[in-house]
């Protein structure tokens, strides 16, 4: 989340996110990032939080909000 927020609204590529998550081989057909984002969104919604993430088709993920680290 911090990396996405620090990108200042720019789209972060799926490959870059895979690398940040510790995956050394990025398969363009893999849905593991989608699954991880889905689980993260479900946990956030259960806590009453909407994540300001937008999936950019065939490009990556964009953070469109503010992040406060406590």
Automatic annotation (TrEMBL):
Residue ranges flagged as DNA-binding region: 1-65
Domain OmpR/PhoB-type: 1-65
GO molecular function: DNA binding
Coiled coil region boundaries: none
Keywords for this protein: DNA-binding
Any single biological process term in GO: phosphorelay signal transduction system
Tagged with keyword DNA-binding: yes
PROSITE patterns to which the protein is assigned, alphabetical: OMPR_PHOB
Name of this protein: Helix-turn-helix domain-containing protein
Species annotation: Ensifer oleiphilus
């Amino acid at each position: 989340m911090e990396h996405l927020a620090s990108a200042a609204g720019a789209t972060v590529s799926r490959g870059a996110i895979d690398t940040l998550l510790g995956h050394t081989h990025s398969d363009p057909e893999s849905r593991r990032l989608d699954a991880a984002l889905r689980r993260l969104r479900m946990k956030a919604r259960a806590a009453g939080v909407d994540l300001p993430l937008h999936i950019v088709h065939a490009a990556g993920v964009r953070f469109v909000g503010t992040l406060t680290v406590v």
